[in-house]
Model the fold of this input.
Amino acid sequence: MSCSSGPNALLVVSYVMNTVFKTLVRDSGGVSRASTHPEILVFLNDLAGNDFNSTFKSLQGFYDQLEKTYNRLGGHEGEQRQQACFVAGIPGSFYGRLFPADSLHFIHSSYIGCLRENDVRSCSNEHCFVWQLVGNILSDMLSQGKVEAEKLESFHVPLYITSSSEEESIILREGSFIINRLETFEVTLDSVGDDGKLDGRSNADVMVNSLRAISEPSLTSHFGEEIIEELFCRLGVIFAAYLPHGKNKTLGIVISLVRQ
Done:
């Protein structure tokens, strides 16, 4: 779910396939035959505007890397082609129906934001500050005639970031899943240059790209794609100038669920 189209689009698939290879080699006493491997069908999901084609173009390199991994773990040269891993794209929103009933064995959602209970207020304020910057830039572009007043006034961001306890409560209340594991973790967003020093420009790029990954579809749909590059370029300049070095962190959550 939410696979996007960059180099990470197939990263989780690689982890899954590597785990399959290792398990088969272990269970076969160190030698695995392609004929014993299951056929694995992978569905990559994102919104219809996602660039699935760029991901499909990278599949050959992905398959080549799988073959190298398979051979390294004890497989036989050339047999990876017979051990089928099929990849398909499923465009659409997961708020609607995407798959037939009982058709999936494993589901991975690429990222879900999370906050620790005592961090809800401060981190929510930081997210609001970022969107205030976006609003200020859009207002400036309005004064330059690049954004329509009606579109700016009608644009709203329904931002709400849950805590881990809220996530747990929602899952238990819905009742379809058992929580196998739930953990929060801290992610450092600061980038370090080749000289070992914090790189403010790269920090800004990380922040801009993170925001762009989740907001570009809605911004493009509402304002049009003509303003997008300038909007995020301006935001990057502000981030580079004002982000506190060494303090740029975010919190995430990992949840493993088993269907009831």
Q: What stands out?
A: The chain has a mean pLDDT of 77.
